[in-house]
């Protein structure tokens, strides 16, 4: 008998199990985002397509998406479970006063915000919402072919795009300049490539803002913890939501927003956010067209490495059990 070998091997096996348990419970949370698409004004018929496209993308970017058109969902209890709220083509007055207060509180507690397309055309009298998004919609000329200039290709929402990106979409104009609240504009409509009879307000600034991000969402109140904000004005058509490049643009903006470190997915001491352990089985970095150039913290893009690590640990553990069993037999 080799009692010392037996006890060493069982200790090693136990340690192997413990390290696997530690990795899976602490290091691999999934982000959780609430998609809100209630409309009080114009209703985009691409909302179902867009919602499904986001949900289909979820496993590749390690995000659980819930969707709702119920304004009653905007209370402290519900919002506190999310790492971001995503306003999708919301138009008109989409929240009641308690809902607006809950959203303000969520933003003060580090919650992240994502707005897409007509999200700039809602809550027009709620100034914190306008600042959190960056600028309100003014008008758009007819759906058009246009060239979008990538004016900042260092951001995860743009790094995969061609410098001149051809799209068929609505070229939004805004009533103010998102740069005035601290946004960094990453995409700009090339006004020479389409017809807009105007009158276009000079207040939106130059170059023409089309998508932008805010490191500190400007809707936060003084003393609050600012999360991140990302907005793209593109996304009108069903076809757009079936386009891999557009989806990579949106997914890059979403994953960037979650890396604010102000919600639970990347910060265990955060007040809001999700502590759901990821159970996605997709290899998130290789199958995804999302850029992996700026992973931070326990980034979703590390989950393939995580799976590999866990597998290796299981193999090592199994080997030690086998050796231990051999030792017991002899
Ligand atoms: C877009 O897709 C939805 C279904 O998801 C459909 O109801 C709608 O008619 C489509 N729009 C167009 C213009 O084809
Ligand atoms: C929050 O909203 C949900 C869904 O409408 C509801 O079930 C819940 O009771 C609300 N909680 C509070 C504290 O208002
Ligand atoms: C927003 O403000 C404008 C101008 O003050 C007013 O005409 C409009 O009724 C307000 N809308 C809402 C939904 O309160
Ligand atoms: C965009 O250009 C294509 C090719 O010239 C044309 O077929 C299509 O009708 C145009 N679409 C719009 C919305 O202008
Ligand atoms: C994590 O969240 C806590 C609580 O909101 C905050 O004080 C801290 O600064 C956050 N950490 C980082 C790295 O942002
Ligand atoms: C993953 O977790 C979610 C949320 O708890 C659940 O709805 C889903 O069925 C789970 N999927 C798998 C494959 O276990
Ligand atoms: C988030 O945390 C990671 C890991 O600690 C760090 O590299 C990154 O700079 C942080 N991001 C922000 C916005 O604080």
UniProtKB/TrEMBL annotation:
<feature type="domain" description="ThuA-like">
    <location>
        <begin position="32"/>
        <end position="257"/>
    </location>
</feature>
<keyword id="KW-0732">Signal</keyword>
<dbReference type="Pfam" id="PF06283">
    <property type="entry name" value="ThuA"/>
</dbReference>
<feature type="signal peptide">
    <location>
        <begin position="1"/>
        <end position="26"/>
    </location>
</feature>
<feature type="region of interest" description="Disordered">
    <location>
        <begin position="283"/>
        <end position="302"/>
    </location>
</feature>
<dbReference type="InterPro" id="IPR029010">
    <property type="entry name" value="ThuA-like"/>
</dbReference>
<protein>
    <recommendedName>
        <fullName>ThuA-like domain-containing protein</fullName>
    </recommendedName>
</protein>
<dbReference type="InterPro" id="IPR029062">
    <property type="entry name" value="Class_I_gatase-like"/>
</dbReference>
């Amino acid at each position: 008998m080799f009692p010392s070998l037996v006890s060493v091997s069982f200790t090693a096996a136990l340690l192997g199990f413990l390290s696997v348990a530690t990795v899976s419970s602490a290091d691999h949370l999934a982000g959780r985002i609430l998609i809100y698409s209630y409309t009080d004004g114009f209703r985009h018929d691409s909302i179902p397509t867009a919602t499904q496209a986001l949900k289909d993308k979820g496993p590749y970017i390690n995000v659980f998406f819930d969707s709702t058109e119920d304004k009653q969902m905007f209370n402290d209890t519900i919002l506190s479970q999310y790492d971001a709220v995503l306003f999708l083509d919301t138009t008109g007055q989409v929240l009641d006063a308690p809902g607006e207060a809950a959203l303000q509180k969520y933003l003060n507690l580090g919650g992240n915000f994502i707005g897409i397309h007509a999200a700039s055309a809602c809550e027009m009298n709620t100034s914190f919402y306008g600042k959190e998004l960056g600028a309100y919609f003014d008008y758009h000329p007819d759906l058009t072919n246009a060239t979008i200039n990538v004016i900042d290709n260092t951001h995860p929402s743009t790094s995969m795009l061609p410098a001149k990106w051809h799209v068929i979409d609505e070229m939004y104009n805004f009533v103010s300049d998102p740069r005035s609240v601290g946004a960094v504009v990453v995409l700009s409509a090339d006004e020479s490539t389409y017809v807009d009879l105007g009158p276009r307000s000079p207040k939106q600034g130059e170059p023409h803002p089309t998508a932008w991000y805010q490191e500190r969402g400007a809707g936060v109140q003084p003393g609050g913890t600012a999360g991140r904000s990302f907005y793209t004005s593109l996304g009108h058509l069903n076809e757009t939501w079936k386009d891999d490049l557009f989806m990579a643009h949106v997914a890059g903006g979403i994953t960037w927003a979650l890396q604010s470190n102000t919600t639970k997915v990347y910060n265990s001491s955060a007040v809001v956010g999700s502590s759901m352990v990821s159970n996605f089985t997709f290899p998130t970095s290789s199958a995804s067209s999302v850029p992996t150039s700026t992973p931070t913290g326990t980034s979703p893009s590390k989950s393939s490495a995580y799976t590999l690590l866990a597998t290796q640990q299981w193999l090592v553990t199994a080997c030690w059990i086998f050796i231990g069993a051999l030792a017991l037999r002899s």
